[in-house]
Amino acid sequence: MKPLLLCLLLLSFPGWAQGPAGYDPAGSPGPAVTVEVSRTHCLVRFVETVAGNGRSHVGSRWAFEHSRFNTPEARRWLRRYRALDHEPAFERAGYPAGRVGASGSTAPGYLAASADARDLPDLLRRTGGLLPNEVLMSLDSVYRYFEPAFDTLAWQPHAAGLVRAQTAYAQFLAERQLMREFGQLRIFYGSVWPDALPYRVLLNPQLTPGIGFSNKASVSGNVVLLNCSPDSRDFISGSTVMFHEMCHSLSVQQRLGLQQQLEGWYLNSASPNRRYAYNLMEEALATAAGEWMHACQTGHPPIGKWYEDEYIDRYAKALYPLVASYTRRGQAIDSAFVARAIRSFDTAFPQAATDYGNLFRNALYWTDAEDADHAAQPFRDRFNSTIYIVASPITHSTQALAAAISGEQLPVILVTQRHAATLEYLRQHLPALHGFRLRPEHSFMLSTTGPNGPVILVNVHDLTQLTVAAQVLEKQGHMNLKQPLVLLK
Q1: How confident is the model at residue 463 (pLDDT cuts 50, 70, 90)?
Q2: What is the pTM of this model?
Q3: DSSP β-bridge partners for residue 411
Q4: Read out DSSP for 350-398?
Q5: 278 with 266: CB under 8 angstroms?
Q6: Is the pLDDT of residue 449 over 70?
Q7: Contact between residue 206 and residue 57 where contact means Cβ atoms under 8 Å apart
């Protein structure tokens, strides 16, 4: 009961969460920051990169794959690494499921330990108890195997340059007093992040020449993972990426009560786009806030594209004046901000609720096909999904059914066998299908919406027709609610 009591006290008295009595976050120098280089950490990141981890930069992976170290034996070691449960995840009770703070893993602790470790034996000592010893010993074996490749490709050519970049980057941050500006974003986010908890910027060598500071930075706890070219001095661009990622950490540490309020402010809106505006809020806010940090250095936000995804780019630009205004006033995000954000989203994307490009970004592929991943592939080839789940079978799958009617994802239901029984099951359980007469002997695609949101149902007698259905959706671009049924040939 004591941890719960402490949590309630912090929520009841937000000032306690921010600092001691008399603490003024607006007048503080902002959170502390260090810029570090660690050989052991770089080795851990190198293995993570060549194994294909999404947080790592593809250029470094390319360098390994085109080196003499890319052997059949090395690929077997990489498969062994990928099979290890080395970042077990957990859910945090009470946090909104759609927010980044709803889940966590052992990764922040492990990465911080790797930054502190003098060598691999020291890493083992520091991570004892964090993961099972069997996993820790397997990781140690993998790191030792790839150490020669790491030294040859990444460390020996770039260690001296990284140390020079470390000094120059730390000096840049101190001279510009950028953490004071970032402290203002902490107020805007309503986050619990004390000044004494430092952000640790860990530089990692970027092996692709001419890239400069990579846009593949990430954050894990208070560790900022920044891939860089050791010779680059484009610190303004590098810091914009860095602060974007640090804003995600502020979002994770946003007060629980505020996270719950934010979800309610968005999802209780009357806008048909409320869920899409909420789901894209995280990335759009971090983008707008990162570009505000850019403007603090140059006097104006950059011209051109801020984010590759059109929705996030335009949403972030629409939010930017709001973010800048709230941050300058020292005001936390509130219901008025959310209302204006949703109106801005509605104006920018009037067809978001029927646009397949938007709907497919969070998809549930629910199928009875023997190879579920193969059945979903034609749709994944044509529509980018930030999040997707492949579930099977269809009937008597309680968890998949709950996801399909939750409204949080686009159900893309692919029926390939037992057509009559399966379609009847779906018609009974999905409100969006109640009004349709589904003919099991036909191959068809039905794209409609209901009280829980849109649903796409594909009924085929030949698996090649799944590709035909995906092509039809791609050509349509948007749901046609006046003609929701298309017969497939």
Answers
A1: very high
A2: 0.85
A3: 364
A4: TTTTTBHHHHTTEEEEEE--SSHHHHHHHHHHHS--SEEEEE--STT-H
A5: yes
A6: yes
A7: yes
